[in-house]
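Annex B. Sample input.
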Amino acid sequence: MKGYKVMMSFSETGVDHDYLDLDTMVSYLRKYETMTDVQPDNLQPTLWRTCRVLANETRLKIIRYILLHPGQTVSGIANVFSLNLSMACRHLRDLNARGLLKAERIHGNVMYWPHADESTRQARALFASIWFTMGNHDDAIGFIYNKATAFTHPRRIAIVRQLAKSPRRLCEIQRLASISKPATCRHVGKLLNRGFITLDRKRQVYALAKPGTTFEQTLLALAVAT
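Annex B, continued. Sample output.
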């Protein structure tokens, strides 16, 4: 996959995903959410659960393999990755449940394809950005894993949504999140470490960062639009 580019286009804007700013992306995602063919909120996959599925190197390698070799069976994936059938089945089902792979029964076999669930804005956006990253990043697996761990907890998504409204001090973040100071520090620290927020050390104020990659931009936009 190295060397070829997969661009994600938002048809409503007519602009390639790589060149959209955060406000434009969030606006698009919220507009897409209102379309009649999209699942209601209570059926949409939650971002933090999807990120927990992505925060697994084996599952990311499975995604990459199926992108390169579409139409895989459970037994085929089990053989390629030296997994028992139940574990291979679990990984594939987890990815399918988050809308990142399509399952199709053909002649008695369940086949998995690199196709996002079209009814969820999250799956469409993440699938395209994962595909793009897999083809354009030297360490795509490690990169996606690292960035996905930023949003494996709903508290961190809530903090990002706070900061999307305005920069805040740590005490304000703690008050709005209604959690202890140590917990606030842990969550803020992870977001800072993963590059999704910044700290003005002179003013001690946290703000949203401006990520430079497609996958980071997509994750941040989805978190803000949640």
